[in-house]
């Protein structure tokens, strides 16, 4: 996921202006930029399966379903990340061009090499988004989905799903089987 950091500190606006002219995507964290690397075919298939199902489910409901080419801004001062998928139903994101600020759902497809980053640093950043209700982590080496849901008291609760379960994302009232999520996917284990 992350390659070499750039040596010079950039302000959030400097980063946004600079990245427009780059051939690849970069995440922005604490004034530094990090090149994004590509994922595996199973990684992409899982993301496409879920994003396609979410898009179909939310059609006509005023929500944006976005893939890994769309970035999320954590605050006015950064950080900026490229999750594998996200949904925003917030009016303030209706005309967003460069990045989304108010997602209700963020999705990361994880491999053993990205699991610690996605569960640690990225989730610490994502939790700062006041509109975020669910953070989904989908494994590429086994059929397994873990997700965090913010409860009524604002506390994040962990839920786990394996082959027998149906995934329920309350932020967008979406249900799917894990079989659908992993349809035609050759796991990387």
TrEMBL record:
It comes from Coleofasciculus chthonoplastes PCC 7420. Residues 13-169 form the Putative restriction endonuclease domain. It comes from the Bacteria. Coiled coil: none annotated. InterPro entries: Nuclease_put_TT1808 (IPR012296), Restrct_endonuc-II-like (IPR011335), Uma2 (IPR008538). This is Putative restriction endonuclease domain-containing protein.
